């Protein structure tokens, strides 16, 4: 009994025993067509009973094994060594070939690193340290000057003066420190009045100044000349990035321009307005502003560095300008905010600035009319999370304010214009809710937060404010406009509500607000009642907004176990992704 298998290519492949190859019937073609069929007749080991009906042919499908076409002249058997050699001659292993090429390229590229590349400090120590030290000492001396006994002023010789003067002055800030005479040194520095000058005494250099050499800075004239110059204060001081300089400044008396305008037009920021005695260059204020943002350098440390650049001996120091510098830097930052917000181009001027107008809006938060598509309000319930904002609230009890000064002496330059709340309405609202308990005041439902429990300890005595509260974006961790407020005593509902309500003014058009707060399990219980009965009329949210309260992930374990507490979990809130709500902790 024989059964015929129809093998259709390509499907799956398997080996055919050599014992049955004699019964193979091959399609008579030198090249197999696609999906061609090869039939095999295979005998059964046990015969069928004579009474049984004739069996139908059983067909099996085999994958095209990608074999070359049969060579009828050679008659190679697929199980023979000759067939394997023929197949190997037509087969190229691209993987091995690619690996071989990569290995060759890597071998070519792999070169021994030089000492300058592998151990640069060792090379400098062995071969170049003495050279560097020698050139450093050479720069402290006269260098090439007077090398061949020529003591004349370099500029006088360059101008081919008949009687060149002796060069004894050099500049530490100029690129080429030529030794020049007094007149040539002053002429060189008419446009560079804040350079440091040294004088050669015959054995060493001593510190001098352009003021001693007779340089005068003329204001309000590009030609540096005025028919009616007015001298400045005799102890006029200018702070620059390379030190503290005493200079002679002449105001313009031929034109009716105020003194402070003349100074500002020359890049000098006056510390006072009536009769300025101290100025800082715009370059110094920009440098200090950027340095304080990147390195957290304090104004005091920066000024101490200026003092040491001026005189590092610690004696005969100039009169301290630390307080004027602090005022100038504070004003400079404020002016930068106004400039970037376009307040200088508004017809209403600075007085027309609105609350939060100087703050930088979070680019990842949804803002209707700015970064939302048309008809976003018609989104289905399953897509509404795309247009939701995640706001994270928290309080910081370490940012305390001492009872030192007051607002009449040191008023805020723009309270409520950027990130802090407006002081007057905030204080009024907090006083109206002075009898409110703390957010964590109910011990039976408390959150168990250590920061709140320590808010009223003895270490808070003598403080005007015990901390601050803020609202930030749950995505980008940017602080929201008009969200930072003071804490008078503890973390009360009134303080938290006002900062949150002030922030909601910038998201009036949104429909879903997700609020992350470590005490959300209590703060949100009577939220609707507080909004209805206590919130100021101008801060109440529209009725179309939906609020969803959640607890930051790190604070979940610290809360007391209460029933239905999982409703505040980020992990069970749809549409928040992997947001943890802990951005305020990272900001603090």
Radius of gyration: 42 Å
In whole angstroms, how far apart are the ends? 88 Å
Low-confidence stretches: 1-46, 60-67
Compute the number of helices: 18
Shape: flat
The quaternary organization reads as single chain
What share of residues is helical? 25-40%
By secondary-structure content and strand pairing, the structural class works out as alpha+beta
Outline the biggest β-sheet: 5 strands, mixed
The whole-number mean of residue pLDDT values reads 81
Tell me the β content: 5-15%
In spatial order, strands of the major sheet run 17-16-13-18-19
Beta strand count: 19
Q: How many discrete domains?
A: 4
Question: How would you describe this structure to a colleague?
Answer:
The protein has helices spanning 81-89, 94-109, 115-118, 120-140, 154-158, 182-188, 210-213, 259-264, 282-295, 299-310, 322-340, 423-432, 450-453, 493-504, 520-523, 527-533, 553-556, 583-587, and strands spanning 2-8, 37-43, 169-171, 197-200, 205-208, 216-218, 229-231, 237-240, 243-246, 248-252, 268-270, 278-281, 389-396, 401-402, 463-465, 467-473, 485-487, 512-517, 546-550. By secondary structure, it is α+β, with helices and mostly antiparallel strands. The protein folds into four domains: 1-90, no CATH class; 137-211; 231-340, no CATH class; 376-587, no CATH class. The protein has a five-stranded mixed β-sheet. It has a four-stranded mixed β-sheet with strand order 9-8-12-11. Strands 3-4-5 form a three-stranded antiparallel β-sheet. A hairpin with a 2-residue loop joins strand 8 (237-240) and strand 9 (243-246). The longest helix is centred in the N-terminal third of the chain and has 21 residues, at 120-140. The model is unreliable at 1-46 and 60-67 (pLDDT under 50). Keywords: Membrane, Transmembrane, Transmembrane helix. The chain crosses the membrane at residues 506-525. It comes from Gymnopilus dilepis.
């Amino acid at each position: 009994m024989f059964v015929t298998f129809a093998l259709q290519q390509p499907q799956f492949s398997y080996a055919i025993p050599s014992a049955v190859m004699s019964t193979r019937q091959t399609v008579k073609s030198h090249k197999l067509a696609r999906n061609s069929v090869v039939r095999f007749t295979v005998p059964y080991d046990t015969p069928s009973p004579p009474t049984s009906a004739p069996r139908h042919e059983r067909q099996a499908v085999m994958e095209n094994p990608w074999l070359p076409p049969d060579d009828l002249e050679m008659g190679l058997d697929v199980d023979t060594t000759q067939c394997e050699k023929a197949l190997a001659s037509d087969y190229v292993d691209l993987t091995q070939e690619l690996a071989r090429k990569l290995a060759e390229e890597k071998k070519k590229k792999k070169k021994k690193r030089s000492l300058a590349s592998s151990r640069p400090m060792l090379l400098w120590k062995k071969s170049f340290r003495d050279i560097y030290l020698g050139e450093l000492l050479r720069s402290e001396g006269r260098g090439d000057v007077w090398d061949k006994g020529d003591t004349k002023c370099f500029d006088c010789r360059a101008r081919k003066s008949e009687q060149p003067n002796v060069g004894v002055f050099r500049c530490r800030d100029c690129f080429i420190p030529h030794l020049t005479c007094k007149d040539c040194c002053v002429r060189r520095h008419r446009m560079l009045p804040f350079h440091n000058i040294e004088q050669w005494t015959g054995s060493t250099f001593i510190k001098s100044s352009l003021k001693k050499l007779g340089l005068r800075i003329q204001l309000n004239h590009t030609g540096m000349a005025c028919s009616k110059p007015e001298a400045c204060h005799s102890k006029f001081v200018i702070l620059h990035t390379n030190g503290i300089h005493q200079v002679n400044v002449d105001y313009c008396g031929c034109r009716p321009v105020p003194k402070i305008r003349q100074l500002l037009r020359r890049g000098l920021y006056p510390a006072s307005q009536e009769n300025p005695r101290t100025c800082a260059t715009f370059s110094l204020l920009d440098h200090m502003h950027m340095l304080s943002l990147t390195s957290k350098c304090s104004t005091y440390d920066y000024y101490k560095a200026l003092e040491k650049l001026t005189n590092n001996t610690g004696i005969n120091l100039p009169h301290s300008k630390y307080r004027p510098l602090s005022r100038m830097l504070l004003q400079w930052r404020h002016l930068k905010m106004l400039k970037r917000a376009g307040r200088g181009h508004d017809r209403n001027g600075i007085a027309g600035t609105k609350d939060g107008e100087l703050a930088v809006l979070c680019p990842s938060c949804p803002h209707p009319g700015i970064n939302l598509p048309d008809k976003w309000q018609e989104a289905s319930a399953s897509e509404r999370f795309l247009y939701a904002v995640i706001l994270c609230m928290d309080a910081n009890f370490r940012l305390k304010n001492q009872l030192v000064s007051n607002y009449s002496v040191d008023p805020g330059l723009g309270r409520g214009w950027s990130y802090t709340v407006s002081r007057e309405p905030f204080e009024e609202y907090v006083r109206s809710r002075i009898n409110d308990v703390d957010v964590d005041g109910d011990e039976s439902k408390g959150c168990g937060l250590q920061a709140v429990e320590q808010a009223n300890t003895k270490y808070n005595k003598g403080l005007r404010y015990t901390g601050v509260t803020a609202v930030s974006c749950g995505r980008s961790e940017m602080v929201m406009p008009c969200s930072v407020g003071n804490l008078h005593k503890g973390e009360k509902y009134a303080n938290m509500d006002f900062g949150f309500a002030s922030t909601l003014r910038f998201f009036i058009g949104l429909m879903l607000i997700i609020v992350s707060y470590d005490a959300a399990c209590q703060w949100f219980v009577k939220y609707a009642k507080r909004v209805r009965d206590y919130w100021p009329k101008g801060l109440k949210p529209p009725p179309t907004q939906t609020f969803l309260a959640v607890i930051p992930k790190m604070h979940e374990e610290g809360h007391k176990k209460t029933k239905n507490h999982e409703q505040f979990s980020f992990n069970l809130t749809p549409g928040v992704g992997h947001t943890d709500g802990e951005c305020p902790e990272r900001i603090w």
